[in-house]
Amino acid sequence: MEKFDIIGDIHGCLDELKQLFTELGYTWVKGIPTHPDYRIPVFVGDLTDRGPSSIKVIELVYQLVVKHMKAKYVPGNHCNKLYRYFLGNPVKHQHGLETTVAEYEALPNAKQQEVKQQFMELYENAPLYLTIPEVQAVVAHAGIKEEMIGQYSKKVETFVFYGDITGKKDERGMPERKDWARNYHGNQWIVYGHTPVPEPRFKNKTVNIDTGCVFGGHLTAFRLPEEKIVSVPSKQPYLPEKFRTYEE
Fold first, then answer.
1. Domains of the chain by start residue, with CATH
2. Residue 177 near residue 195, CB atoms below 8 Å
């Protein structure tokens, strides 16, 4: 049976990603993390923005997913925005994109073209969300409702990228998000990120593994079929206001 290590939002935190691979028992073979039991890393999106090494994270994930086909990836909302930037669409350089663009613009032209091509290929070949029948799991960046699984519409895409948003803002000026996980009653695991939480949040058969690495929390993996959490501490400054807590 195949085994999977689903990894939360990286946001350019390359050092923590490398440390997490070590904690998970991977060794580096020709620059690629490889597991003796052939475990498959799955990235839950938001590879870039805010953190110090977005370009190198793109390059590593491209090598793993596209070139060596040893990992899986689903895009997050930050991935979608970077993709639109590379297409030449007018996107605002804020909410973290500005750090990735600064890194990108500092590269020589030939390297820029290489990174752009790698990311676009990675993004264009990624599923909106990933169903993993072997371990009865669905990986979706901000989550997915049970009735949406198997569907691909604009509504589903918005949910997968941004969660159950209402269109309103909360008291902090952040997009208001409904707690969809509270009403999930499916048999498959829904593994997601997007909303930073102080520790992995288990609700019904869902788990949020965005433990806010880029905000000084942890970078977290959820292992299946073992249903085990592995985390490494962040090297970034701790910003407690960036984390969401739930009334359980």
1. 4-242 (3.60.21.10)
2. yes
